[in-house]
Amino acid sequence: MENGTLNHGVDTGSTITIKGILSLLMQNIEEQTSKKRVISLGMGDPSAYSCFHTTHVAQEAVVDALQSDKFNGYAPTVGLPQTRRAIAEYLSRDLPYKLSSDDVFITSGCTQAIDVSLAMLAHPGANILLPRPGFPIYELCAGFRHLEVRYIDLLPDKGWEVDLDAVDVLADQNTVALVVINPGNPCGNVYSFEHLKKIAETAKKNKILIIADEVYGHLAFGKNPFVPMGVFGSEVPVLTLGSLSKRWIVPGWRLGWFVTSDPSGMYREPKTVERIKKYFDILGGPATFIQAAVPRILEQTDEAFFKKTINLLEHASDILCDTIKEIPCITCPLKPEGSMAIMVKLNISLLEDISDDIDFCFKLAKEESVVILPGTAVGLKNWVRITFAVDSSFLEEGLRRTKSFCQRHAKQLLRY
Amino acid sequence: MEENGEKRWNFWGMGKLNPQSKTSVRGLLMKIWGSVNKDDPRPLLPLGHGDPSPFPCFRTTPVAEDAVVDSLRSAKFNSYPPTSGLQPARSAIADYLSRDLPYTLSPDDVFLTIGCIQAIEITLRALARPGANILLPRPCFPFYDSYASSINLEVRYFDLNPEKGWEVDIESVEALTDENTVAMVIINPGNPCGSVYTHRHLKEIAETARKLGILVVTDEVYHHLTFGPNPFVPMGVFGSIVPVITLGSISKRWLVPGWRLGWLVISDPNGILRKSGIVECITDCLNMTSDPPTFIQGAVPQILEKTGEDFFSKTIDILREVAHICYEKIQEIPCITCPNKPEGSMFVMAKLNLSLLEDINDDTDFCLKLAKEESVVVLPGVAVGMKNWLRITFAVEPSVLEDGFGRMKAFYERHAKKQ
Fold this sequence. Notes:
The structure holds 2 protein chains of 2 kinds. Chain A is built from 12 helices and 16 strands. By secondary structure, chain A is an alpha/beta fold. In chain A, the strands form 4 sheets. An 8-stranded mixed β-sheet of chain A has the order 4-11-10-9-8-5-6-7. A 4-stranded antiparallel β-sheet of chain A has the order 12-13-16-15. In chain A, strand 15 (373-374) and strand 16 (383-387) form a beta hairpin. Chain A is globular and about 70 Å long. Chain B is of the alpha/beta class. Helices cover 37% and strands 15% of the residues of chain B. An 8-stranded mixed β-sheet of chain B has the order 2-9-8-7-6-3-4-5, sandwiched between helices. In chain B, strand 6 (181-187), helix 7 (199-212) and strand 7 (215-219) form a beta-alpha-beta unit. Chain B is globular, with a radius of gyration of 22 Å.
């Protein structure tokens, strides 16, 4: 199929949204009136599964804030002061310096934090370096802000590390930032301290700042612990984006943050702070009572809750890797170390009548009612993204059906 | 570690997102709050902004709070919401709005937004094709201008006539429209004017827009908050005459602006907006932006269906009472005149007669000095496009309003020109 034409209804000529393509895949299932239950391994949202639920502390903190009747009004556009303070303290626990509450701006989910960072950096002729594979919201927002996008490959043979040589080649005087997603979506990697340091040094050398998308912050269960990019904030200014969504399993609450992790104070310049505040004046922020619950949520959530989530994710990722090994046409370059998804490669040549990743996913949906995301949606054709933050029995069945799909479509080998 | 002057970073100090010349309500109010005398033992009286929720007489209904608590505790609404909103919420809003329309809205016509603010944002983004312009009323809620300028959408202002109940000056609309004009915006019930348009006038607006080939964006965030002779008539009633985009939220009628639950609704029974591709633009914008919290969306059906009339009447009664106090009190202060008794929303526009004042230069000066000397905050009209007018909020506790006007009168007497 050529670029720009429709492939199963997907317009590969423009930026595909994850939600968009997943809903096309789901529609495909409905049209076939499948008798099998639908298994979606497509979305980074485990909240639908009973084994993944938020903590009672968080829920009751929000109920109390709502029932206090003190938070039905507008919050300041930059966020409630107690919320900003609480997030500054929370993030500072892992940094060698203290963030001030003035460094923290409350956003409606990490999605809005992405919008803010790109809006703040965009100017005529500017370009931004995005990871490939990556998260398509960056492309969409960049397009809207007329920011040129340049791609930096993540290297599958090197644990999906950032190709730093490419940064040196592609960065020029109009480059404003490098986006780093760690823990990684869609790749499931967690960068080592050394690699993050090298990224910081490369950014500094090229005079660009780093947008550190840490929405999966602390969701690390492999050999590398989670290290926030802000640790290198004195080397290079870092804009840290995050939210409650993943660690607390409440993406529907839309509570995120945009933080200037910049102890050398570039982002504390009055003019810059003014600009950021003025931009927030035209944003519709998160619900006031949810903001008001944040200090309690951050202070009182038990370590046990975090450990439980990590264990579930680790267990699921083990199942995933073990099963993938049994499927010849799929290879997994890196056992997941964090986040909720991994990228696996399709060997199309081993399959009979499958033309590419999009074709694979649509046929899989139609025949087996299993939904996974075609890698084209995140920038890597003929790869697929599988999310494992689901109930383990779901995962097992989904992978079983995927295996049987692959066997059914395997090319018949010549016998000799 | 520290950056010296020579080190240039590529992202340094630019960005066309610099609405420095635009006055925002918040910005100006902040400035005025800043001039309040901190040693004044009297309480600060806020008659400048549109959020009555701090006042006990303006408390939301337990029905709404319970609905949200139930929704949250069910643990069924912690996931990402669908882009256009949860289906039951879309359905409930369609039903709710259809009660006042001669046709039935479909849930597909309803898009959930983070308050009415995001509904405005998405609408302006969807309309902003290169070279387009939109028509805004003067005076206007300043967010339209701020946001339009941040996306390089040209705005043109038509007048609202203070002598005729702040009705739209139809001739000025016609004069401003050209082939690049895509829409006109009306705010009804009116912010900042407190006006409520008649059926006749809304029809006239619809027919004019149709003749000019532009759509009507109607900001109905204050829907049903009317207490004068004219009932609230949604612009969507004229949706068959001209395509209408209706913006609204639960913020004002339920007194919960902090909940951030709004909507953008296509009130267009002839399907023109869908055919024109605007609906697709709207969904594209929604695809890359955030949403209202899922559990609040989940509570919407219960909120809309179960809230009793008695809650609504209670709010209207209080607003009627305070609007009346406000209008009466303004008449006792010679340097302020109010051409129209407010009939809806939470605000009134009053004209300043500077010639009766000794040492006040303009509306901003008046407000800064009033705040400093009397700890009363009102909004200078320049923020809404009418210099030397004032926007006064009456949606406060009646005693606060009485007190505020008492102090304003004292301020006038102190600054009155000696005869």
